[in-house]
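User: ok so my PI wants both of these folded by tonight, can you help

Assistant: No problem, let's get them done. Here's the first:
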Amino acid sequence: MEGEKMVHIIDLNATEPAPWRALLQDLSARPEGPPHLRITGVHQQKEILDQMAHILTEEAEKLDIPFQFNPIVCKLEDLEAEKLRVKTGEALAISCVLQLHTLLANDDELLKKKSPTASSNGVNLQRALQMNQGTLGELLEKDLINGYSPSHDSTLHHLCL
């Protein structure tokens, strides 16, 4: 994210503000100045998102960093991609610590019911993602059209970092 003017982080398990506080502190020390930072937090409990927003907004104000927190209250498997409000021109990072499997779990169960030979090791991942249209799975679909081969600029590559 070096040199970027606008940074958008999507936290798919927004429970802990500590890593983002540390990031704010690191960004404030950049020689070219901090970017505008936008964090989208996804969690089922509004109270947790409110607390995280309060802590991070306070830290950003203290460090004089342009900051915006966008809470999305929903279960991860029900997340619709358009709610993420990704904008052209912003650097995008997605944090999915211990959460990516939940996007695939429901679809994997559907696949097993429809096809007893379907494996859960990713061979049928494209079909599973297509079954859950309108969710974050659509962002992954482009990486899986011709098999699993994430490039450095692919969504799946960034999700797995």
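One down. Here's the second:
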Amino acid sequence: MKSMATISFYLYLLMAPLLSCALATNLQARDGGSHRPAQVHKVQVGGPNIFAYTPSFVFAKPGDIILFDFLQLNHTLTQSSFKEPCTPLPGGIDSGFKPNPMGVRGLQTFELKVPPGDDPLWFFCRQGRHCSDLGMVFAINPNVEKDFTTFFARAKGLIP
């Protein structure tokens, strides 16, 4: 007859994988599933006769990557605020100018890792008057209180 310790050991071997799965599922449910791999969101910047970020906004989770592919002609991704769309945010993100006159895909890129939190992030192109005249703006996680339409209208000076 097997000892109680031996039986307990075999039960542990049988139950360990099940307990491990249950614990992982519980942790994932508690933190909203944040243990998922980061997603990559692709955004085209400019293009032939295009003065826009395409798409104009994305919904992303902290840790996700936004991959900006800069095409014609020469643009930036510069962080701003909701109230002042065409003014650089002090200490904010700035890709610098990314010249690509021939529009070669993948030649000029910029990766942005979405920071922790769920506040919207606002950006514009600081090339000439691309923001104020053409409304070249971009957002990450716009919401009901701070929506993309209002941000775009402020950039073009249509509303205060």
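The beta strands are 40-45, 53-54, 57-58, 65-70, 74-75, 78-80, 98-99, 108-113, 121-124, 137-140. Residues 3-32 have pLDDT under 50 and may be disordered. Good luck tonight!
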